[in-house]
Amino acid sequence: MIKVKAQESPITKIGTNEKELKYVLKPVYSNTVAEKEIIDFCQSLTQLPRTYIRASLESIIQTMIHYLMLGYKIKFNDLGTFYITADSSAVSSVADAGLSQLKNLYIRFLPNKELSEEVRSAEINLDGIYKIVNYDKKIYEKVKTTSKTDLPEEEDTGGGSSTPDDGGDDFSG
Description:
The structure is a single chain. By secondary structure, the protein is of the alpha+beta class. It has one domain: Irregular (HU Protein, Chain A), CATH 4.10.520.10. 23% of the residues lie in helices and 34% in strands. The chain contains three helices and seven strands; from the N terminus they run ββααβββαββ. Strands 2-1-6-7 form a four-stranded mixed beta sheet, with no helix packed on it. The chain has a three-stranded antiparallel beta sheet with strand order 3-4-5. Strand 3 and strand 4 form a beta hairpin. Helix 1 crosses helix 2. The chain is flat, with a radius of gyration of 21 Å.
């Protein structure tokens, strides 16, 4: 089950620099799973020695880094594709085009169809409604507790937002 929360956030009005407070849905992260926990879980599924799993994982990571640095996309059929993107400024002439345009490089992940469908069809529970106490310090206060039973009967909760979450917010209530 995936938990989400309605969180008050400043949203910039289109065409202006004005911000207005709106409530948006964000995932609730329980915690971060460490590499050791992943290895332990894999070991429980396969009964392979942990040292084999750890060595395999390290080898896969090094291989992925190697191929990404060579400009390859990496596709795992049961998972998705990893690739590098560039953030750069636009220039109007070929004479101005060059490395000075580059702002940053990023690693992206595009999940495969099955993984995307699994997430879209997951059972969702609304954890609560949170109001900003101090946005700069990322402090939120729970102002309303809700549950799945508070959602309308006919509402489709499997969709989600088309705006990606930056993944860095970890607000607890």
